[in-house]
Write a structure and sequence with these properties.
This protein has about 475 residues and is an all-alpha fold. Among the domains are: about 55 residues; about 100 residues, Tetratricopeptide repeat domain (Serine Threonine Protein Phosphatase 5, Tetratricopeptide repeat, Alpha Horseshoe). The protein is about 75% helix and about 0% strand. The chain is elongated, with a radius of gyration of 28 Å. The two termini are about 55 Å apart.
Length: about 475
């Protein structure tokens, strides 16, 4: 039996909820913390792989300097390394790197560091090998030291920016990339990496501008071509979602789930001002909507509006009744001492959004169903099934919508699936009996009898009793 620590559980829970809310970079950060705390955490490697895949699908294949050039330009630096007039270190490290023996290369480099601690090629190699092995904190220290020694070296800064980006320290990464660009304004790798960083922070139009500038400088660079294709795919998908959601929300201003979805899509598109306005409007109509508090807090945090982020995370914690936890007490103490960044980090430990996107879709679909908008209702029920195919309600309501548009064959399949997931689903048994009663009377009667033995809603009981009586 694997014993899971409380700290690892907390990071995992936050990661799962970020993942469900499509905040994949934040989810990945939490899952990596789980791996660091407890390497044997159940399925963590698979979950990290899934988070990486989804993050790349959303943000584009953000291949940056290290991934593309580690095995060429960075390895070539090893040829410059000598220790105590020895020429053996360079070829040895280079061979280890080519074989993928990064741990052994790291050991050799650490030995060399004790002899030539201020060597530029050594620090570059050491920092990048540490990054390859996932030792991001150590890589940052190594490259910060290199940046202190060589403050005018744009390549050192570029590598430091990459590590900070891996650590999700977006503001610090952007500052480093922009400093490097002032030194080398036409450096395509720097422009590409800054574009990757802007994608991660949802500034999609700025990212597109940077990628297009890189293509002008280096038209045949496949990495940037792919980045731009992925970025345009992301922009087009979000623009389509926003157009559809705007129209739906205008038509149904009281359907607050639509407003939440619109606010989130606007945020992912980089339309921060409109996203905040939309979410504030949703929250005004229903102050109890914790999800609106969460999205607003996240936007304010990304826009570096720490006071507003704290305000909405704080409100969220109060609404979820988590204000008596040790983390919240730590947050209050840090606020009194005016350590606002530290207080925000502590507050976020308990400001966790328990997202159930499938249930939200089902509830929204029911609203459309009640308004006799069958196609729109079906769309939301099918979306719920795609998100979570273990909810019997999603299959049941999708079947009812299909019955209304005369697709009884598919409806029958979905009702059977709902019953498979919940054999005691009384209403599903009743509806399946209604579908079968003209062509399979015995099967229909079996489902009616089963429904009557369960907690069938009263409006269906009378009909089921009558039909069972007729089939005796």
């Amino acid at each position: 039996m694997i014993i899971k620590s409380k700290q690892a559980e907390e990071h995992f829970d936050r990661g799962i909820n970020y993942f469900r809310g499509e905040f994949y970079s934040s989810a990945l950060q939490e899952f990596n913390q789980v791996k660091k705390i407890e390497p044997a955490y159940p399925n963590i490697d698979f979950i990290i792989e899934a988070a990486i895949k989804r993050n790349r699908e959303v943000a584009g294949q953000l291949t940056t300097f290290i991934e593309e050039n580690f095995d060429t330009e960075i390895q070539d630096l090893s040829d410059e390394l000598t220790v105590e007039n020895s020429s053996l270190l360079g070829p040895e490290v280079k061979a280890l790197l080519k074989r993928g023996s990064y741990s052994e290369a790291l050991r050799k480099l650490k030995e060399a560091e004790s002899v030539i601690p201020d060597s530029r090629p050594l620090l570059m190699l050491l920092g990048n090998t540490q990054r390859r092995l996932g030792f991001l904190g150590e890589a940052e220290k190594t490259l910060q030291h290199a940046a202190h020694l060589f403050p005018e070296d744009s390549e050192v800064l570029n590598n430091l920016g990459n590590v900070l980006l891996d650590m999700s320290l977006y503001k610090d990464a952007e500052d480093v990339f922009r400093t490097a660009l002032r030194l080398s304004p036409e450096n395509p790798r720097l422009l590409n990496n800054l574009g990757a960083m802007r994608m991660q922070t949802n500034n999609l139009d700025d990212a597109e501008r940077l990628f297009r500038k890189v293509i002008k400088l280096q038209p045949k660079w496949d990495t940037v071509q792919k980045n731009l294709v992925n970025l345009r795919r992301r922009i087009d998908a979000l623009d389509a979602d926003i157009e559809k959601l705007r129209a739906e929300f205008f038509k149904h201003p009281d359907y607050l789930d639509i407003g939440l979805a619109l606010g989130k899509s606007l945020f992912f598109r980089g339309y921060f001002s409109e996203a905040k306005t939309t979410l504030r409007g949703v929250l005004k109509k229903n102050p109890g909507l914790v999800a609106a508090c969460f999205y607003l807090a996240t936007i304010h945090e990304m826009c570096e509006e720490t006071d507003k982020a704290i305000e909405h995370y704080h409100l969220m914690v109060l609404k979820t009744g988590k204000d008596n936890t040790p983390e919240f007490l730590n947050y209050e103490s840090l606020m009194k001492q005016e350590f606002y960044e530290e207080a925000l980090n502590e507050l976020k430990k308990v400001a966790i959004l328990e997202l159930d996107m499938a249930a939200s879709r089902i509830n929204l679909g029911i609203r459309y169903f009640e308004d006799c908008q069958w196609e729109d209702a079906l769309r939301h029920f099918e979306a719920a099934i795609e998100i979570n195919d273990t909810y019997p309600d999603a299959f049941y309501w999708a079947a009812l919508a299909l019955i209304q548009i005369n697709d009884t064959t598919k409806a029958k399949e979905l009702l059977e699936k709902a019953i498979e997931l919940n054999p005691d689903y009384a209403d599903a048994h009743f509806q399946l009996g209604m579908l079968l009663r003209s062509k399979a009377k015995k099967k229909a009667r079996t489902h009616f009898v089963k429904a009557l033995s369960l907690n069938l809603r009263p409006s269906f009981v009378r009909i089921a009793q009558q039909l069972v009586g007729e089939q005796k």
